[in-house]
């Protein structure tokens, strides 16, 4: 394996050590023993092999020969190796990807540790190998080559850790020797053995010498490597240093656990890199976990405690988790160190969205507040069951913390945070329910509500095993053991709560806030236990309480919870289904009879008092909630509700609180009827035709009712009608026959134009309104504004779905798109998604809608303000911003959108000149300022398209009879956006602005005009942009483009770019971007392609995008008459693209 003693000096050392460590298959101890045998045979060759092992581990292909080792110093050897270092790739063994290098670092460290371990009784104190190795590693750790520095620092710190273990063993041996010596000396003169005393003294002297040598090596490594590398620029090196010094302090605390060493960890707590801060916290946690060491950490704690507390709010979750765990250890082992203010910095974290962080904070909270009062006593190593009094104390403390801290509104997140450390207490449902049911507990209303929420949250957590909504776990599923525990907990909670749930409902039946969560408990029960445990009597009691609750309350939350609970029990597979179905029929009969009676009174009487109105509205709400979860078709509620709504629309005498649930009832009736028809239509093709026509009639009649309600006085009636209309129109759209349901074709309904316009008008009046500014978000007024915003977003989403699914004409999207910029913060995501879907449906039509939106806004502003000074108004500036956002929505596919953008410009030019000024007036056309909006789309044009549009604009301007004496401002602005030149030199024909003449050789203006005149009538753009004729790859010297900023500000011509100095990489990349031209032949090399692909990712930044497109206008278009000499700029020169420019 290793070289023999007679190997030639000129031959480089073998790489067997490196290959064996890389493979990580052989026993490390035998590998070191073989090297030791080789070293004993030939010390120089053996040590040289070890040196070359470390050099190869750095990724260096160079080797150290015997001649180099004898004649050159360490610094010269390192300089020589640096020159031979292969820097083609930034990877080296410690960072190289791939499975072969995955275990290299662990194997490398294991080799160093084993080397020290096998040498600790002899070779370690030889002087030659270790001193020279430490000297070499110290020199390499100071190298500018990252691979040398990283690998040698890892080796030096691992070597240091191994030496610390050896020093610790020497210290133990010295103590043992000292005790032996003292014991021998304390013997009487007759029993004392002088030879043994002498041998013990010699052994002590030997141990002392060895310890001094080890301390000298450690001191050299610490001062030569650690002191310089703990603040290295590379975070991996800093992390290695901090991790190892933490090991030294834990294993050999007598020497290293001093303030002179602790300060390095304290300083590094402020490191900007996540991994380094994490290593600091883990090292400190190991120190604070040992109670024997805490007394020596007091000064450090007082100096750096504030920093450790502040790291609870670290932006990296894993660092924050470790900081909370560290504070928990300090709380356990150092009493009184953390003040109340320090603890209050941790308390809010129990409501964090990251579950690991919240769980760590929950453990801190448990040890701070709950453990001292609710300590679980252990007897003979086993935890004793807590007394009922201790359990109640736990829940009272939990209540007190949640209510008094006022940090959050939902106790479910607190329960989840405490679940890992206090799950057994939280699953003590006996104590929870006894607290709720006992009369003498003196709990306040808020405390009772909170305790019920804690009960429901703990039941949900035990039954489902996942955290509340919005809290991230990172876990994919439960282990088999966790699933078994979850199943057992579900059975236990069901058996305990089934008998008590009717009692809880009976006690809190008058309070809607408490009854609703109690009814939700049924979601987490194993309902089969009603049958298997013979608990039907408790089911009867529950059904009685449920009926009382439904009859007593009209709050939506209570009614929805009750209807869903009854739905869970109405499963035909349960043996008690008939009993539950009978109870449901009784309840619905009761509500229906009451509704029929109250309805007749309303229809016959011209006046109802408040109590009668409230009673009717409450009955309708109850029926509506149950119709949502249960099929109530056989009670035939459609006709009476329709009569009620018809009277409301015709006379306006029906109160609004009655109309709202009546609308919902009719809506559910139609949906349940559709469900029956859909299920039976395929099997019975004849009979459903009558049902289909009846359903279609009901649906159309209801849509007419809702359309009439859109103009109601009450906004809540309007919004409800709009929501129901949106849903029904979507359900009965052409999508309903997809999937083999063609028999439902007669039900397809298309809204009339009047209904479409009313829906759009409702949107303008109720959605696109300017709300007030939100405050801090904590006041009641702010909460109300947020709820209103959510409601408006729901309304807009319903309208946009009608557009996307073809229910409404796509042109109606202009009413939405024109508010894209103004309401971007409120509805930007919805409108952007609608715009994307509309473009997927029809790209050309979508582009026309964008233009239509701008036309509508412009016309509205023109009618309000008049044509004078229009482009200086704030509303017009907002329109320009909207046009810019529309232009950005086309994305980077310039060639794909080429015809669409040209069409948009052409239609925009027609609109701007569609109305002429009054006869005899010298003013400009009223719509002419629209050209300024159109100029925002100019960066999306190809160069040749700009020339054609300039010619088209000139022709359109010739038809204007009134010619101003000077160019119109909007025309000049638009021409400037189409011009290849940056300055606005005016070249006019008969007083009209037109395209500017270039100052380089090229086709004559007359010839260009001939080309333009042949194409201006029909801009059919089916050809690709021609390939530039020059594709030079010559290496050019990069020169700075001096004065570029001044030229961009003052407006330089294109010739100043093409005939001036060479462009830098960034500037040339803007010209070479694939967004601005496509080359069908001679594609560039892979390097250029990769870098141009990176350029495509820069489209998100609007300002950079705008600059990029402005620059793209300046590359010269070479038509079929141009010669290669006309190109002042090589478009495909890839040599000046540098990745550092990006």
Automatic annotation (TrEMBL):
<comment type="similarity">
    <text>Belongs to the SCC3 family.</text>
</comment>
<keyword id="KW-0159">Chromosome partition</keyword>
<dbReference type="InterPro" id="IPR039662">
    <property type="entry name" value="Cohesin_Scc3/SA"/>
</dbReference>
<dbReference type="Pfam" id="PF21581">
    <property type="entry name" value="SCD"/>
</dbReference>
<keyword id="KW-0131">Cell cycle</keyword>
<dbReference type="Pfam" id="PF24571">
    <property type="entry name" value="HEAT_SCC3-SA"/>
</dbReference>
<feature type="compositionally biased region" description="Basic and acidic residues">
    <location>
        <begin position="1000"/>
        <end position="1011"/>
    </location>
</feature>
<dbReference type="InterPro" id="IPR020839">
    <property type="entry name" value="SCD"/>
</dbReference>
<comment type="function">
    <text>Component of cohesin complex, a complex required for the cohesion of sister chromatids after DNA replication. The cohesin complex apparently forms a large proteinaceous ring within which sister chromatids can be trapped. At anaphase, the complex is cleaved and dissociates from chromatin, allowing sister chromatids to segregate.</text>
</comment>
<feature type="compositionally biased region" description="Low complexity">
    <location>
        <begin position="1012"/>
        <end position="1033"/>
    </location>
</feature>
<feature type="compositionally biased region" description="Polar residues">
    <location>
        <begin position="1057"/>
        <end position="1072"/>
    </location>
</feature>
<dbReference type="InterPro" id="IPR056396">
    <property type="entry name" value="HEAT_SCC3-SA"/>
</dbReference>
<dbReference type="Pfam" id="PF08514">
    <property type="entry name" value="STAG"/>
</dbReference>
<feature type="region of interest" description="Disordered">
    <location>
        <begin position="1104"/>
        <end position="1142"/>
    </location>
</feature>
<dbReference type="InterPro" id="IPR013721">
    <property type="entry name" value="STAG"/>
</dbReference>
<dbReference type="InterPro" id="IPR011989">
    <property type="entry name" value="ARM-like"/>
</dbReference>
<feature type="domain" description="SCD">
    <location>
        <begin position="226"/>
        <end position="311"/>
    </location>
</feature>
<comment type="subunit">
    <text>Part of the cohesin complex which is composed of a heterodimer between a SMC1 protein (SMC1A or SMC1B) and SMC3, which are attached via their hinge domain, and RAD21 which link them at their heads, and one STAG protein.</text>
</comment>
<keyword id="KW-0132">Cell division</keyword>
<protein>
    <recommendedName>
        <fullName>Cohesin subunit SA</fullName>
    </recommendedName>
</protein>
<dbReference type="InterPro" id="IPR016024">
    <property type="entry name" value="ARM-type_fold"/>
</dbReference>
<keyword id="KW-0539">Nucleus</keyword>
<keyword id="KW-0158">Chromosome</keyword>
<feature type="region of interest" description="Disordered">
    <location>
        <begin position="985"/>
        <end position="1090"/>
    </location>
</feature>
């Amino acid at each position: 394996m290793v070289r023999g003693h007679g190997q030639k000096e000129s031959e480089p050392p073998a790489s067997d050590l490196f290959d064996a460590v890389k493979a990580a298959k052989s026993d490390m101890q035998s590998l070191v023993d073989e090297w030791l045998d080789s070293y004993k045979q030939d010390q120089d060759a053996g040590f040289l092999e070890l040196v070359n092992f470390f050099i190869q581990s750095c990724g260096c292909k160079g080797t150290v020969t015997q001649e180099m080792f004898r004649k050159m110093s360490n610094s010269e050897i390192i300089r020589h190796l640096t020159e031979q270092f292969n820097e083609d790739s930034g990877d080296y063994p410690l960072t190289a990807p791939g499975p072969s290098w995955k275990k290299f670092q662990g194997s490398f460290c294991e080799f160093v540790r084993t080397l020290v371990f096998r040498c600790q009784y002899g070779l370690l104190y030889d002087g030659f190998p270790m001193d020279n190795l430490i000297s070499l590693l110290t020199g390499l750790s100071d190298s500018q080559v990252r691979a040398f520095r990283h690998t040698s620092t890892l080796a030096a710190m691992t070597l240091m850790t191994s030496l610390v273990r050896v020093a610790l063993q020497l210290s133990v041996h010295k103590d043992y020797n000292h005790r032996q010596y003292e014991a021998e000396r304390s013997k009487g003169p007759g029993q004392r053995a002088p030879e043994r005393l002498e041998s013990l003294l010699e052994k002590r002297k030997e141990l002392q010498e060895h310890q001094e040598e080890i301390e000298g090596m450690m001191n050299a490594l610490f001062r030569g490597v650690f002191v310089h590398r703990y603040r290295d620029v590379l975070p991996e090196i800093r992390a290695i240093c901090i991790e190892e010094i933490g090991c030294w302090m834990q294993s050999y605390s007598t020497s290293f656990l001093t303030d002179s060493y602790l300060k390095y960890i304290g300083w590094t707590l402020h490191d900007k890199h996540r991994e380094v801060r994490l290593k600091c916290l883990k090292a400190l946690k190991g120190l604070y976990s040992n109670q024997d060491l805490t007394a020596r950490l007091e000064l450090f704690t007082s100096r750096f405690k504030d920093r450790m507390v502040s790291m609870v709010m670290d932006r990296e979750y894993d660092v924050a988790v470790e900081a909370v765990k560290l504070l928990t250890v300090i709380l356990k082992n150092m009493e009184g160190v953390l003040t109340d203010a320090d603890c209050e910095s941790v308390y809010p974290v129990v409501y964090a969205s990251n579950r690991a962080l919240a769980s760590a904070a929950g453990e801190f909270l448990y040890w701070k507040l709950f453990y001292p009062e609710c300590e679980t006593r252990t007897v003979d190593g086993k935890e004793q069951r807590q007394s009922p009094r201790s359990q109640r104390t736990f829940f009272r403390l939990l209540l007190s913390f949640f209510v008094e801290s006022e940090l959050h509104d939902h106790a479910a997140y607190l329960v989840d945070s405490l679940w890992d450390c206090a799950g057994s207490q939280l699953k003590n449902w006996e104590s929870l329910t006894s607290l709720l049911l006992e009369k003498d507990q003196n709990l306040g209303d808020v405390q009772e509500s909170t305790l019920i929420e804690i009960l429901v949250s703990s039941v949900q957590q035990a039954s489902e095993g996942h955290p509340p909504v919005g809290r991230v776990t990172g876990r994919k599923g439960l282990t088999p053991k966790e699933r078994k525990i979850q199943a057992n907990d579900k059975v236990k909670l069901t058996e305990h709560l089934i008998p008590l749930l009717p009692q809880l409902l009976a006690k809190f039946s008058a309070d809607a806030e408490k009854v609703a969560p109690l009814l939700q408990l049924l979601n987490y029960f194993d309902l089969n236990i009603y049958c298997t445990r013979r608990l039907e009597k408790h089911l009867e009691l529950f059904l009685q309480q449920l009926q009382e609750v439904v009859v007593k309350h009209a709050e939506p939350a209570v009614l929805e919870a009750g209807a869903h609970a009854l739905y869970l029990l109405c499963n035909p597979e349960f043996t008690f289904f008939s009993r539950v179905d009978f109870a449901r029929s009784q309840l619905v009969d009761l509500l229906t009879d009451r509704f029929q009676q109250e309805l007749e009174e309303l229809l016959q009487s011209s006046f109802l008092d408040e109590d009668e109105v409230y009673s009717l509205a409450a009955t309708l709400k109850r029926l509506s909630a149950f119709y949502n979860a249960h099929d109530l078709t056989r009670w035939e509620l459609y006709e009476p509700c329709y009569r009620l709504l018809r009277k409301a629309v015709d006379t306006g005498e029906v109160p609004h609180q009655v109309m709202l649930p009546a609308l919902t009832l009719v809506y559910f009736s139609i949906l349940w009827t559709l469900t029956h028809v859909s299920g039976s239509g395929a099997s019975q093709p004849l009979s459903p035709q009558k049902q289909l026509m009846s359903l279609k009639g009901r649906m159309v009649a209801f849509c007419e009712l809702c359309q009439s309600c859109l103009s109601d006085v009450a906004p809540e009636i309007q919004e409800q009608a709009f929501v129901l209309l949106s849903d029904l129109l979507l359900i009965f759209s052409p999508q309903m026959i997809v999937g083999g349901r063609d028999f439902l074709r007669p039900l397809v309904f298309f809204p009339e134009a009047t209904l479409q316009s009313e829906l759009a008008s409702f949107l303008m009046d109720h959605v696109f309104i300017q709300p007030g500014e939100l405050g801090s978000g904590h006041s009641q007024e702010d909460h109300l504004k947020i709820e209103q915003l959510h409601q408006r977003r729901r309304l807009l989403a319903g309208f946009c779905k009608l557009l996307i699914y073809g229910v409404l004409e796509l042109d109606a999207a202009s009413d939405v798109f024109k508010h894209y910029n103004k309401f971007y913060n409120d509805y930007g995501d919805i409108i952007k998604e609608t715009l994307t879907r509309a473009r997927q449906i029809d790209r050309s039509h979508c582009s026309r809608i964008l233009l239509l939106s701008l036309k509508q806004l412009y016309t509205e502003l023109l009618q309000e303000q008049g044509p004078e000074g229009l482009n200086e108004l704030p509303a017009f500036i907002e329109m320009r911003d909207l046009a810019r956002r529309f232009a950005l929505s086309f994305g980077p596919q310039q060639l794909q959108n080429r015809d669409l953008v040209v069409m948009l410009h052409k239609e925009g030019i027609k609109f701007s000149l569609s109305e002429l000024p009054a006869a005899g007036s010298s003013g400009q056309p009223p719509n002419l300022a629209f050209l300024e909006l159109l100029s925002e789309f100019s960066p999306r044009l190809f160069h040749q398209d700009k020339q054609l549009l300039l010619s088209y604009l000139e022709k359109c301007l010739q038809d204007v009879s009134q010619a101003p004496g000077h160019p119109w401002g909007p025309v000049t602005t638009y021409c400037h956006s189409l011009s290849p030149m940056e300055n606005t030199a005016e070249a006019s024909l008969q007083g009209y602005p037109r395209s500017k003449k270039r100052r380089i050789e090229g086709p004559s203006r007359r010839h260009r005009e001939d080309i333009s005149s042949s194409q201006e009538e029909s801009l059919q753009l089916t050809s690709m942009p021609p390939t530039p004729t020059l594709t030079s790859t010559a290496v050019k010297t990069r020169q700075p483009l001096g004065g570029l900023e001044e030229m961009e500000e003052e407006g330089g011509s294109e010739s100043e770019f093409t005939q001036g100095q060479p462009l830098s990489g960034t500037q040339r990349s803007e010209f070479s971007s694939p967004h601005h031209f496509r080359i069908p032949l001679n594609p560039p090399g892979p390097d250029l392609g990769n870098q141009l692909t990176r350029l495509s990712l820069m489209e998100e930044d609007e300002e950079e995008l705008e600059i990029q497109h402005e620059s793209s206008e300046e590359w010269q278009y070479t038509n079929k008459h141009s010669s290669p000499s006309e190109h002042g700029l090589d478009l495909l020169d890839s040599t000046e693209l540098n990745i550092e420019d990006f």
